[in-house]
Amino acid sequence: MENLFFGYVAPCLCAFLACVGFTFMFNIHGAGKLIAGAGGALGWLVYLLAGSSIFAAFLAAAAIGFFSEIMSRVRLCPVTGYVLVALLPLVPGGGIYYAMRHCVAGETNQFLSSLLHTFGMAAALAVGAMLASSVFRAVFRRRK
What we know:
Low-confidence stretches: none
Largest sheet: none
Radius of gyration: 16 Å
Number of strands: 0
Mean pLDDT: 91
Order of helices and strands: HHHHHH
Distance between the termini: 49 Å
Number of helices: 6
Helix content: over 70%
Shape: globular
């Protein structure tokens, strides 16, 4: 039970709170704060359940993309704020830091390894969110 809490619930709660904090910067109001936070928690949960890999980041971004498209249609708000805020906990900032640290230290192999992994994570996030959004918009046309 304790492993479940610290392995899944606590990280998702932290992602939720971080996303709610970022809604202030993106000027998201009211229930949109909770929706963006729920999107971040959902994305982090999918990422953890899928194995914390590059493919897991792709699946998490796709889940965030679908969730954001649905919530933007329900609330009649732009989808951009929901997607951007929910993706923030998955952004590989630590990978960028470690890549630069290895570069400055002259550790070429570690630098290239961490840099390629970071680029893979960033590309997976971008492709997952774009693909989910494109598929959703192709399947569910907006009614006038």
